[in-house]
Design a protein that fits this description.
Layout lengths: L8 E4 L3 H12 L4 E4 L7 H6 L2 E2 L3 H6 L3 E4 L4 H8 L10 E5 L4 H13 L3 E7 L12 E6 L1 H11 L5 E4 L6 H10 L2 H16 L9 H24 L9 H18 L7 H15 L7 H5 L7
Parallel strand pairs: 1-2, 1-4, 2-3, 4-5, 5-6, 7-8
Antiparallel strand pairs: 6-7
Helix pairs in contact: 4-5, 10-11
């Protein structure tokens, strides 16, 4: 496609994220075809100018660039199976969760049917799709990224190609995503604790945000320690975190908030101390994580 003619795009899967993706393309003037197992989900997009394909085969055949947004790689293959023959020569971009192994299997299936393949991930919420600072990263066929990079940038201004290895996006998706649930559960624990005192959870949002900013500022320091293997310059030591475990138990007694979810984390800290990392930076937990505890 020339710069003056917007690339036609097909979006498969119209959950909250899929609808946001398709809406961004429609808003940017791209001819957009949509398909979902539940046809009613297409109605708001059709009202904005999208075309609803009744069959997945027609949806795939409508555009040179096909973007899927389903839950897993397995779900994506299942949805696309009836349209496998139509994939030949088209660029297929998957934006879903899944393991690196799942990405490799998806790439093998897609290229086996003649598709040019990119695996990707949206690192933000649906409401942020299209914003300048919204991050999406991709891995796989670099010529596909180069050809459709301008179109893909409609979804977010921070658009990155990680490399030709198809599973890199899934690897980083899981590596970065591992931070989410512990951080959220920590916030939920804090919310329950302040509510136990008759306070509102919203009263801690400002302070939690500052705390997350502080943690963000430490990530480059910890990454350097992990990459070098030198944990001796310990601003926050393993022993410091070990001592803090008792405070969590005291919180349970005072507020009746369940902190049992922290037990495996405390065990990890104890194992690090036992391995000789007590006076080392807390980043030394990485060394323990490389060697899982033997099964009982």
């Amino acid at each position: 496609m020339t710069r003056d003619v917007p690339t036609p795009v097909t979006v498969i899967g119209l959950g909250s994220m899929g609808r946001a993706l398709a809406g961004a393309f429609v808003g940017a003037g791209h001819p957009t075809t949509v398909w979902n197992r539940t046809p009613a989900k297409a109605a708001p997009l059709v009202a904005k100018g999208a075309v609803h394909a009744r069959a997945v085969e027609a949806a795939v055949g409508a555009s040179p660039l096909v973007i899927t947004c389903l839950t897993t790689f397995e779900d994506t293959r299942s949805a696309l199976e009836p349209a496998a023959a139509a994939l030949s020569g088209r660029a297929l971009v998957t934006l879903n969760s899944g393991s690196p192994a799942g990405a490799r299997a998806m790439a093998s299936w897609a290229t086996g049917h003649g598709a040019r393949f990119l695996a990707g991930a949206v690192k933000n919420v649906p409401e942020a799709v299209g914003a300048r600072d919204t991050l999406l990263y991709y891995s796989g066929d670099r010529p596909v990224f180069d050809e459709y990079g301008t179109t893909l940038k409609v979804l977010g201004g921070d658009t990155v190609h990680l490399g030709d290895e198809t599973d890199l996006a899934a690897l980083y998706e899981m590596a970065v995503g591992a931070m989410l649930l512990p951080a959220l559960v920590g916030f939920f624990q804090g919310a329950a604790a302040v509510q136990a005192r008759g306070l509102e959870a919203s009263s801690m949002v400002r302070f939690a945000g500052k705390w997350l900013d502080m943690i963000k500022s430490l990530l480059p320091v910890y990454a350097t320690e992990i990459d070098s293997g030198d944990y001796t310059d310990a601003a926050s030591s393993v022993n410091l975190f070990l001592a803090g475990a008792a405070h969590d138990l005291a919180l349970t007694k005072e507020t009746n908030v369940d902190v049992a979810w922290l037990a495996p984390l405390h065990d990890l800290v104890e194992r690090a101390a036992a391995a000789g990392h007590g006076d080392h930076s807390i980043a030394a937990l990485t060394e323990v994580l490389r060697k899982p505890a033997p099964k009982a």
